[in-house]
Amino acid sequence: MVPVPFRIAKVIREIPGVYTWHLKSLDGKPFVYRPGQFNMVYQFGVGEIPVSISGDCREPDTLVHTIRAVGPVTNAMQQLRAGAVVGIRGPFGRPWPIDEVVGSDLIFVTSTIGLAPLRGLIHEVLHRREDFGKVVVCYGTRGIDDIMYEADLHRWRARFDMHVHLTVHSAPSGYRGRVGGVVAAIRAAQVDWPSAQAFVCRSETLTRQAVDTLAGLGVTKDRVWVTLERNMQCAIGLCGHCQIGPTFVCKDGPVYRYDQIEPLYSVREF
Amino acid sequence: MVHIVDLEETLAHHPFAQGMDPEALRTITGCASNAVYHPGEYIFRDGDPADNFYLIRHGLVALEIHVPQGPPIVVETLEAGDIFGWSWLLPPYRWSNDARASDQVRLLKLDGACLRGKMENDRSLGYEIYKRFVPIMARRLAGNRMRIVELATEPAVHSRQKG
Ligand SMILES: Cc1cc2nc3c(=O)[nH]c(=O)nc-3n(C[C@H](O)[C@H](O)[C@H](O)COP(=O)(O)OP(=O)(O)OC[C@H]3O[C@@H](n4cnc5c(N)ncnc54)[C@H](O)[C@@H]3O)c2cc1C
Ligand code: FES
Asked: What's the predicted TM-score (pTM) here?
């Protein structure tokens, strides 16, 4: 699969070091995908990286990626302005299992950039709002200055049919919101724990902590959905770059049911 | 009398007292009173004698750390169902942070100095109290360790520069 050229139509600086691109394909074709899938994004002459698709899949004319600058490729991409052209291969990977969770209360647990892979799913859940029970988003950030997708969070918070529990690690005195780890936000959620389905998007250590907290409240591990991230090259299950134990993240993931990959979380430096 | 009965009932409904031995509950009720704080009001301050602990009935309480030559920082908020203040259990019985009402807060205030005396003479009461405090302390410690992991793995943001 060769990269298809897309033009960056808009760049949004979400927070320092994190940027969102709105991309349009040069051939004008819609980009069809499902929430949870990812693309290989290629900056010509620099490199190619896997990035989740963060937009609304019902708007296939605009492809949305949110990227955190952490290394050579993501830093170089941060320099690109509207008008620049990048290559896209995809969509790849297993999407979030939205049809499997119809009828349940849904709780989304994430922090900082982890909202990027979940954002498309939340959009889709809201499009199909009548299919689900309660919808609760628990989102944590370092401080009040690094809240991603702030406009979305405000919009979601203003709705009468969903709840957003935001927490920050520290705040200036006088701040009236919740301060603490994401665990505090999970505990504040009021869902039917024995039947709720949870979507967790955090680093691996913090995923375990979230899963343990959810388990303590009654969410069994077969009702927790997570994503794994690994270095990738081919993204189609050939090169083995993304292999962890028996699984290839590019084709079997990046979305997994937690109970099916739990042993991988206890492998050191996997 | 009605007042005591009300307090006992309020206390019994707080998660802190779930499954508590009735005798211990009665003793603790004897050391309890209701308290209301308005937004911004201090409940206690760093360095003051720690002779109470608190059960939150309603509202948000901010735990703040005083930063020399800067405004205080909120490091944690606690809400209805939570309990705060354990310095009354540990010598030298002084608060090590500030607690402030983030909004209108209704609390049950427990007289720790009075309970300390009673626990010396009644070890089973002491056991009831420690049985409730230790898991909360352990949970907060574990939570803070995870926050260190999170802070160490997330990039810092220093100023608001969106656009
Ligand atoms: C399926 C999938 C979806 C992804 N979605 C997104 C997304 O939506 N937005 C986004 O910003 N990034 C996403 N990533 C991560 C992104 O691919 C990497 O950050 C990127 O490859 C880093 O490339 P680099 O050359 O800039 O830095 P590198 O030199 O490759 O890495 C720089 C530093 O970042 C660390 N790092 C690299 N990859 C990751 C990772 N996945 N998680 C945590 N730390 C990492 C490295 O250990 C190293 O310390 C995703 C990864 C996968 C596998
Ligand atoms: S990236 Fe090549 S096998 Fe997954």
From this structure: 0.88
Spacing, Cα A231 to ligand 1 middle (Å): 7
Q: What b-and-e string marks burial along A24-41, b requiring 16 or more CB atoms within 10 Å of the CB?
A: ebeeeeebebbbbbbbbb
- Domain with residue A57: its CATH number is 2.40.30.10
- What does the alpha-carbon distance between residue B94 and residue B87 come to, in Å, rounded to a whole number? 6
Q: Distance from the CA of A40 to the center of ligand 2, in angstroms?
A: 11
Measured distance CA(A95)–CA(A11) in Å, rounded: 25
Specify whether A76 is located in the same domain as A14. Answer: yes
Residues A138-189 have pLDDT tens digits of 999 888 888 999 999 999 999 999 999 999 988 998 898 999 988 889 988 9
Residue A8's SS3 state is strand
Does the beta-carbon distance from A13 to B72 stay under 8 Å? no
User: What are the φ and ψ backbone dihedral angles of A202, each rounded to 5 degrees?
Assistant: -145, 175
Complex ipTM value: 0.82
What is the C-alpha to C-alpha distance for residues B59 and B64, in angstroms, rounded to an integer?
A: 16
Considering the domain architecture, whether residues A15 and A131 belong to the same structural domain is answered as no
